Amino acid sequence: MSRPPTFTPPPGARAHRLRTSRGEFAVIEAGTPVKGTVLLVPGFTGSKEDFIALHKPLAEAGYRSVAVDGRGQYESEGPKDDESPYAQEELASDLLAQARVVGDGAPLHLLGHSLGGQISRAAVLLDPSPFASLTLMASGPAQISQSQQQRVKLLRDALAVMGMEQVWDAIQAMEPPEETDTGGGLDEGLDDSADLRRRWLAHSPAQLIATGRQLCAEPDRVAELAALGLPTHVLSGERDDTWPIPLLDDMAARLRAHRTVIAAAEHSPNTDQPKATASALIGFWDQLTG
């Protein structure tokens, strides 16, 4: 579970509802598009707040950033007992609708973290036209590692028989049973456990079950993505239990992608080392706009 430093948008950023042809989505937006616009897509159990420390440096570098809660994530509504709206193609279609509104006719940079990276890849494969580039942050070529598949299965099994509050209490008693293993318990060193709990309770259980299943069964679509020729950036921490680093290195080579490894970061470099992550992102995008 990504742990943002705060749930409060930074000065100059605003939280609002993004209206699209596929419904409304909660977003945090900052900056003006001097150089371009970036759409930020969170991972499994995450939310738009996972990118909160990136908005200021991106804005200072001339990029408008829009971080979004996907359908059934945190502050974006979605059914709680019907998994069908959370099929990957449906979520990818949501993302394309968001991109068309955010981009307003101009190509934009797309960044997906973990599960968000795989949804972003699916969206690009459906229609690459809204995008100037794709960044896959801690997001691998296919299904997650066996150890993380076991954690996701525990979560899915628990959600099938327990309420969200009961599952949250169970999570507190053990390591988080989901894809983002950054070490320690959820409340280790945190002052915002109430915010994390509120976010968890707002998630749709059907969304978590459906996307958890996707993480455990995602096929390798690297060749399809490579064939598009879209400028791509593979960014990760120096350690990742969800997709091992050599696997990400190999994926980057197959994509002929720009590759960045963030020192002293794990599965969520956006929250582990936001300054270094922002610098790497800006450097990649500046190459494309220069």
Total helix count?
Answer: 11
What's the N-to-C terminus distance?
35 Å
| Assigned CATH class of the domain at 14-141 and 220-289 | Alpha Beta
The CATH homologous superfamily of the domain at 14-141 and 220-289 is named Alpha/Beta hydrolase fold, catalytic domain
Beta fraction of the residues?
15-25%
Q: State the share of residues found in helices, binned by percent.
A: 40-55%
Strand order of the largest sheet: 1-2-4-3-5-6-7-8
Major beta-sheet overview? 8 strands, mixed
Helix-strand category: alpha/beta
Return the CATH topology of the domain at 14-141 and 220-289: Rossmann fold
List keywords for this structure.
290 residues, alpha/beta, Rossmann fold, 8-stranded mixed sheet, 41% helix
Provide a descriptive summary of the structure in words.
With about 290 residues, the protein is of the alpha/beta class. The protein has a domain at about 15-140 and about 220-290: Rossmann fold, CATH 3.40.50. Helices cover about 40% and strands about 20% of the residues. It is built from eleven helices and eight strands. The chain has helices at about 55-60, 90-105, 115-125, 145-160, 165-170, 195-200, 205-215, 220-230, 245-255, 270, 275-290, and strands at about 15-20, 25-30, 35-40, 65-70, 110-115, 130-135, 230-235, 260. It has an eight-stranded mixed β-sheet with strand order 1-2-4-3-5-6-7-8, sandwiched between helices. Strand 5, helix 3 and strand 6 (about 130-135) form a beta-alpha-beta unit. Mean pLDDT is about 95; it is low at about 175-190.
